[in-house]
Write the structure tokens for this entry.
Amino acid sequence: MTDGLLNALTLAASALLGSSNGPDFALAVRVGTAALITAAFTVFVADYADRRAQLVRAEKELNLLKSGHLATTRLGRRALTRSIASMGVACVSSFIGAALPLVAGVVLPGPSWLVPALAVGALAALGTALASVVNGRKGRWTLAMAIGGIAVTAMGVQLHIA
């Protein structure tokens, strides 16, 4: 979700803040698709590389003579399928995170700054949730995520992509 929200704020900040005609459903789909594609590639590569590295460490701990042997077994196939599953979750989350604020901008009446404010608020809420999961300081996580959202929005306005 964080990746999608940040993509929306970066790619569509100028449209969200009113320097263009504003968001529309086509923009929501385009930005959501861009977020989905980048999430698919990034998450799959990172997750699969991590799982393969775990197999390599296990081979070393087991003193296997042939490197890469575990990757050709059921464990290797399981690593691949779990990485694909992780990629799927990331794709859906990123698409929703990117498209939802833009769709809200189309559907909700209000000032042009409402959608970026909602997106930054969603990032702050995710920060609070993450802090709970990792036993972190909720205030710091919430503030850091909100500041990150504001900074990315400012960059998006300067880039003027959509």
User: Anything to note?
Assistant: The radius of gyration is 20 Å. Helices lie at 2-16, 25-61, 74-107, 114-133, 138-159. The chain has a mean pLDDT of 90. The CA atoms of residues 49 and 73 lie 16 Å apart.
